[in-house]
Amino acid sequence: DAGVTQSPTHLIKTRGQQVTLRCSPKSGHDTVSWYQQALGQGPQFIFQYYEEEERQRGNFPDRFSGHQFPNYSSELNVNALLLGDSALYLCASSVASGYTFGSGTRLTVV
Amino acid sequence: GENVEQHPSTLSVQEGDSAVIKCTYSDSASNYFPWYKQELGKRPQLIIDIRSNVGEKKDQRIAVTLNKTAKHFSLHITETQPEDSAVYFCAASQETSGSRLTFGEGTQLTVNP
User: Fold this and answer.
1) Least Cα separation, residue A32 to chain B (angstroms)
2) Where would I find the beta strands (DSSP E) of B1-85?
3) Rounded to an integer, what distance in angstroms lies between the CA atom of residue A63 and that of residue B107?
4) Contacts with B49 from chain A: Cβ below 8 Å
5) How many Å apart are CA A25 and CA A100, to the nearest integer?
6) Touching check for B112 and chain A: CB below 8 Å?
7) Least packed by Cβ within 10 Å: which of A41, B23, B41, B47?
8) Does position A1 have pLDDT exceeding 70, yes or no?
């Protein structure tokens, strides 16, 4: 058991639609980060949330937005989906001892 | 920003041989260097990490070395087994939890029985 739970596991959306992905962090972890992993590539940092605020952001357009709730869970929202948004979206929660990744949500845009 | 380069992209070894994967980074402020193993369709799983205050760390068959002056770090797997076959990613970060991880592009390791 990874301790970080993501839902849904798989999702198929049409170009132009909007999608919301969810993440529940490992117990005791207060920081949540989101990564996009395209096929055959390393994960790319999207943004990080701490105390319900976006603390850092990677090189992703404003179509990517997020939220963190008081219980530390988080959502990733992507608007106006493009074919190139097809990827595995990983959530990672962390404390001082390091990061733990969830199993990801496989998003396919058709 | 940080840039991490990883080599080789593919590595094939015979069971029992050693495997070495190398990474270089660009940001001298980075001081946390984890390695992740990702099997097909699964999440990245931390296998070992090293902080900048040490030069080497070992855990059974796995070891990591760090050269901060040269800005490179390496993963060493000894006595490889078929179940070691996976994609391995190196990463760099300024801290262990509050900073982004910058990943290399990954190494597909295949251990042939």
Assistant:
1) 9
2) 4-7, 10-14, 19-25, 32-38, 45-51, 56-59, 62-67, 72-77
3) 31
4) 98
5) 9
6) no
7) B41
8) no
